Amino acid sequence: MSKKTAVITGASSGIGLGLAKAFLDNGYNVVGSARSIEGLNAAANSLGNPDNFIGVAGDVADASTARDIFAAAIEKFGSVEVLVNNAGFFLPKPFIDYTPEDLESLLDTNLKGVVYSSQVAAAHMIQRGAGHIVNISAAVALQPNIAVPAALPVLIKGGVNQMTRALALELSPHNIQVNTVAPGIIDTPMHDPSSRDFLNNLAPSGRVGTVEEIAEAVLYLAKADFTTGVVLAVDGGMSTGKW
Fold first, then answer.
1. Do residues 163 and 231 make contact, with C-beta atoms less than 8 angstroms apart?
2. CB-based burial, 170-187: b 16+ in 10 Å, e otherwise
3. Which residues pair with 176 in a beta bridge?
4. pLDDT tens across 111-131, in order?
5. 51, 26, 34, 88: which is closest to 212 by C-alpha?
6. CATH 3.40.50.880 fits 5-240, yes or no
7. Which end of the chain is more exposed for a tag (fewer CB within 10 A), N or C?
């Protein structure tokens, strides 16, 4: 009960699962969310079923899910110090090929999920007088890349970047820091191994990043009390411009 608690959305795989492990390893309680309880149970098993990890299933596009996650976190651990808005997906394709269903799906997970979770987190953190909100965006929203057509993800993740700055200002009187990590290409199961050479060449670093490198950045922002309104690119230089 004396530990800090982090809520991580999209915690059943990929970056989210890596974040859950990193926060647990750094002494936090972790409340992970995902659409499926089966995915969360598998995540808990891979983490060693620690007593200070609980999973809450639900769709982040539903406002009630955020309320359920925070209610479970507060009931189990007493308070929430950190929210990581990680749930999301990337859908690159030529602009004219996006369908109305694509747009709705991107808005639901990548935008509504951030808004609803942040609203509940902000209300709780205002009451307790402190907190950290860390969003996960995308480097391509800072610097679009002709090799990766993704106008709709850029539109939505770019909005998250701007909301970060606005919300940082609004919540600063309450000692709540709001920041964003913008990953480049990260080594997760979503990428086909056969595409590795192509992906390696998307950044000046000449390689993809690791989940651990994203976790290091998120952990820093989760503890940084004099850093707010920042969009931190962790992308091997991908967003620095044309190279």
1. no
2. ebeeeebbbbbbbbbbbb
3. 131
4. 999 999 999 999 999 999 999
5. 26
6. no
7. C
Return the SS3 of 142. coil
For residue 118, what are the contacts with CB-CB under 8 A and spacing of at least 6?
A: 83, 85, 133, 135, 167, 178
Position of tokens 């926060």? 23
Nearest Cα neighbor of 5 from 65, 71, 58 is 71
pLDDT single digits (tens) 180-205: 999 999 998 777 888 888 999 999 99
Q: Are strands 131-136 and 176-183 parallel, antiparallel or unpaired?
A: parallel
Summarize the confidence of residues 210-219 as an average pLDDT: 98
Question: Nearest 10 degrees: CA dihedral of 195, 198, 201, 205?
Answer: 0
Whether the CB-CB separation of 111 and 156 falls below 8 Å is answered with: yes
